[in-house]
Amino acid sequence: MTADPTGFAAPPRDLCAVVLAAGAGTRLRPLTDLAPKPLCPVDNVALLDRVLARLSAVGITEVAVNACYRAGDIAAHLADRPVRVSVEAPPALGTGGGVARLRGWIDGRDVLVCNADGYLADGEMAARSLLSGWDRRRFRLHTVHDEARGDFGAPVRTERFAGMSLMSWAQVCALPIGTSELQVPWRRAEAAGELDLVGFSGAFVDCGTPRDYLAANLHASGGTSVVGAGAMVSGRLVRSVVWPGAVVTAEETLTDTIRATTPDGEPLTVHA
User: To which H or E segment does residue 166 belong?
Assistant: First the structure.
């Protein structure tokens, strides 16, 4: 089941990418009350921008992004880029439904599907590893080793899905129209012995909670606190993140904290 690809060739011309960015990020609230999770910055780069840079680095130029929660923010962020934006009316269609809705745009191509809400270190190398040697028939998933949070059965029960998968056009066509999750066909493929897992040693953080989001920032920054553009920091920061435009006064010491600013200009402090 576990693939061990060697070498890398440029992706075929008939390979496109779908970036899943529709989720509400409820576990990351109240930060996601201010911005959709894919636009939350990690070391001052939006999670969505990290994914798009990864795709560009491996030569994938045909990209669609789906959006639902705060879809206007996603669309505005991508307004000057050659990216197809697929806006879903609430509630979001799920990972499978989001891809199925783009079937007309995919139009016969195979697809690299990426989650926009996770931090992946060495993302370019991870994508290259996933693409190398794919037979363009089987589901192929990017994984990392995680003793505590494995997603699969024996003999790979300690492998955790890390936000990228490859699907053939035939598999795209088999997705039902409407709300669905990609985990359903993945599980069928796993049971049939037709699922490939490509492990990678880089760090992966799903950024689902403030604690994980902080961990992603600190990993990306090399362990130093992160200060966004236009932020005013007079106080002391210890393993903390200050969003663009936020303020830390001279009397404050922030430890393991995310500081942002509400639309009313009030400080928002999230302890992680």
Answer: strand 159-167
- Decide: helix, strand or coil at residue 51: helix
User: How far is it, in rounded angstroms, from Cα 26 to Cα 17?
Assistant: 25
Q: Other CB atoms closer than 10 Å to residue 21's CB: what's the count?
A: 30
**Cα(23)–Cα(116) distance, integer angstroms:** 9
Nearest CA to 35 among 65, 77, 4, 63? Answer: 77
- Could you give the C-alpha distances from 68 to 21, 22, 72, 80, in angstroms and in order? 8, 4, 8, 19
Which distant-in-sequence residues (6+ apart) come within 8 Å of 192 by Cβ?
none
Question: Model confidence over 49-104: pLDDT tens digits?
Answer: 999 999 999 999 999 999 999 999 999 999 999 999 999 999 999 999 999 999 99
Q: Which residue type does 45 have?
A: V
Structure letter (DSSP) for residue 172: H
| Total H helices, total E strands in the chain | 8, 20
Element (H or E) spanning 3, and its range?
strand 2-3
What is the reported pTM? 0.92
Distance CA 272, CA 261 (A): 17
Tens digits of residue pLDDT in 193-240: 999 999 988 899 999 999 999 999 999 999 999 999 999 999 999 999
Q: How far apart are CA 85 and CA 118, in angstroms?
A: 19
The mean per-residue pLDDT over the stretch 115-124 comes to 93
Q: How confident is the model at residue 145 (pLDDT cuts 50, 70, 90)?
A: confident
- Residues 171 and 179: their CA atoms lie apart, in Å, by 16
